[in-house]
Amino acid sequence: MSSNTEIAIVTHGSGPLPVVMIHGWAMNSGLMEATAQALSDIATVHCVDLPGHGRSRDCDLPLDPDGAVTAQLGERIGPDALWIGWSMGGLFALAAAQRSQARGLVMLSSTPSFAEREGWPHGLRPSVLTGMRQAVATDARRTVTDFLRLEVLGVTRAHPALQDLEQLAFGHGMPQAHALEQGLDLLEHCDMRARVSRLNVPQLWIGGARDRLVSPDTLTAAAAMAARGESHILAGAGHAAFLSTPDRFNSALRNWIDGNVRI
């Protein structure tokens, strides 16, 4: 059987600023297309489907931020981009920004370490990730649906937001089982805290005040480690702030780009 190593990328706009958007665990690039459209007047936005997800469901590359995924993205998109990563996608955006001449980094409801570990009390408890791993092995679709509910927990108009998420999340089919497992391994073991301080580019750590996965304290702590970092917390928003509060999210993102990123 032949191997497929091509990552799917959907591009929006033709503005002078190259932007790369990378989705989170079990999701796909379709969830970020509305945000891409909102930037299309100033940017050329490349929405990436990670291997095993969305339009890249048949891509065989491993989910490794330091491997072939970021190498291929760098070759196809080129240097000097603004990298935006949502949740798990932030680990890939951070790694890609470090290996290229990035204009900036936006960590959207993301963290350099999703797991709690020594010196980092902001992560998820190991038991949470162990439970997710067991649930994926038992019923992957139900686990992803439960994860979507967690993403909108506590936000205004949670039910319509969940419906929107489900429609977008399953629009290209379920992620591959091995990709879900690799993603959980990444969330449990990846620790990029040291890279945050070494990356000397403008960094925005932005997320929702009601996020149950990546708390506002996590974003503030991560931004404080960066030489050129700042955090922005959106009131009333959850883990998918760009969907639950799109106008305020897009405004905050545009204002930060205008003040920090060369176009």
Structure in words:
With 263 residues, the protein is α/β, with parallel strands linked by helices. The protein has one domain (9-260): Alpha/Beta hydrolase fold, catalytic domain (Rossmann fold), CATH 3.40.50. It has helices at 33-38, 68-77, 89-99, 126-138, 140-152, 158-169, 177-189, 193-198, 216-225, 241-244, 246-260, and strands at 9-12, 17-22, 43-48, 82-86, 104-108, 203-208, 229-234. The longest helix has 15 residues, at 246-260. It is globular and about 45 Å long. It starts with 8 loop residues before the first strand and ends with a helix. The relative contact order is 0.16.
Provide the fold topology:
Blueprint: E1 9-12, E2 17-22, H1 33-38, E3 43-48, H2 68-77, E4 82-86, H3 89-99, E5 104-108, H4 126-138, H5 140-152, H6 158-169, H7 177-189, H8 193-198, E6 203-208, H9 216-225, E7 229-234, H10 241-244, H11 246-260
Parallel strand pairs: 2-3, 2-4, 4-5, 5-6, 6-7
Antiparallel strand pairs: 1-3
Oligomer: single chain
Individual helix count: 11
Q: What is the domain total for the residues? A: 1
Instruction: State the total count of DSSP E strands.
Output: 7
Please identify which CATH superfamily we are dealing with. Alpha/Beta hydrolase fold, catalytic domain
Amino- and carboxy-terminal Cα gap: 44 Å
CATH topology annotation: Rossmann fold
- CATH second-level architecture: 3-Layer(aba) Sandwich
Radius of gyration from CA coordinates: 17 Å
Instruction: List the strand order in the largest sheet.
Output: 1-3-2-4-5-6-7
Low-confidence regions: none
Sketch the topology as an H/E string, one letter per element: EEHEHEHEHHHHHEHEHH
Largest sheet: 7 strands, mixed
- What is the CATH C level class, in words? Alpha Beta
Shape: globular
Instruction: Write down the overall mean pLDDT.
Output: 92
Strand content: 5-15%
The helix-and-strand class reads: alpha/beta
Q: What percent of residues adopt helix (DSSP H or I)?
A: 40-55%
Pfam families: Abhydrolase_6
Keywords: Biotin biosynthesis, Cytoplasm, Hydrolase, Serine esterase
Protein name: Pimeloyl-ACP methyl ester esterase BioH
Domain AB hydrolase-1: 19-251
